[in-house]
Amino acid sequence: MTIPAAFHEDRKHFNLFALNGEGDVTLWQGSTRSHTHTGGGLAVGTLLLIEEDKYGVYSSLLFKYFLAEGVVCGHDLFVASAQDPPANIIKELPAPLLDDNFKTERVEATAAKSEDCQDSMQIAWRYQNAPKVETSPTTSMKFGHYYDVSKKMSPELLQSIKWHSFFLPDELPLEPKLKMCNMNCGYARLLRSIQSVIYQEGFDGSHPQKKQKNILRIGIQSLGSLLWDDDICSTNTPEDIHSLTKFLYVLRGLLRKSLSACIITMPSHLIENKAIMERVTNLSDMVVGLESFIGSERETNPLYKDYHGLLHVHQIPRLNSLICDVSDTKDLAFRLKRKQFTVERLHLPPDLSDTVSRSSKQDLAESAKLLSSGCGAVAIGKKHLDF
């Protein structure tokens, strides 16, 4: 992953971004926990694909987190959708937590967790001196912001940034059908709209720009669904099987030479042709899947009572390296608290069942009789002799 030339010309305008150890400009994704588990952020010029959960509840929340972080950092936004008008998506962005409010929330959460631990230690007394498991990773550097999902972002904060929109139902009636590279009409117009914003608004990193440098955050909602006039979710043999992959291929070319980053949500559980999904994964830099417990057996399973779903990290980008960053754990779960969306390491609670797994005194007595008769005797009790 190479940094566009325009970044080196005027680096002082990128004080809102952080450089990782490999020299790449990384953006905060919006969710603190998912940022830590996916390689430390989304690099400029890369594509993040989120496989939607069954009902699209939590994928939509991560989508809004990404856009909300762009508003707080002063980045430009490009919101594309075929279902919800982009103006409504912008209005529903979560409100950022101020430093004082965030500290208060953290103190209350820590106090509540310590009380729970004290209560649990009265039962599991043998684990009292065991080291505590950190379910949420901690970082030494404060990077990014926290958001309150119970509140909406203020209109004053939304007016301070510049955003562009693409709503497919409003675009289709305006012009005759546009075919580009054997791609369906919706994808072709979306690419043309993204390309015009990159070139006209000064996000083209391959040429010197006269305007002040900034980052463009691109968000595309539910790409590949029937609302985008694509039939890959309705049949195993779609009419144009390569339309979606061609779109992603051209989009990555635009991202690589521009000061932009893109997030796409896709209903992968509806795509019947798995070969298409494999190509989509290969054309993405980072792939994250959400598995919600809504309507499944795990929703009532006591082992998962503290969580609302699982997070699967399928692919992490290789930035200036032959291998990608390997996380210390792959078992991740998420839950939506009253105000925040958190991703934690999945660890099951201890087994506190009523039945005792040890052998009863009667079984031990029968085993003793067998041992006294010699090793060559045949076991005639309920339990066979164990060596």
Automatic annotation (TrEMBL):
GO cellular component: cytoplasm; elongator holoenzyme complex; nucleus
Coiled-coil ranges (or none): none
Pathway membership: tRNA modification; 5-methoxycarbonylmethyl-2-thiouridine-tRNA biosynthesis
A Pfam family reported for this protein in Swiss-Prot or TrEMBL: PAXNEB
Signal peptide span: none
One GO term (biological process): tRNA wobble uridine modification
Protein's cellular compartments: Cytoplasm; Nucleus
Keywords: Cytoplasm, Nucleus, tRNA processing
Function of the molecule: Component of the elongator complex which is required for multiple tRNA modifications, including mcm5U (5-methoxycarbonylmethyl uridine), mcm5s2U (5-methoxycarbonylmethyl-2-thiouridine), and ncm5U (5-carbamoylmethyl uridine). The elongator complex catalyzes the formation of carboxymethyluridine in the wobble base at position 34 in tRNAs.
PANTHER family attached to this UniProt entry: ELONGATOR COMPLEX PROTEIN 4, PAX6 NEIGHBOR PROTEIN PAXNEB
Record family assignment: Belongs to the ELP4 family.
Protein name: Elongator complex protein 4
Gene (name only): ELP4
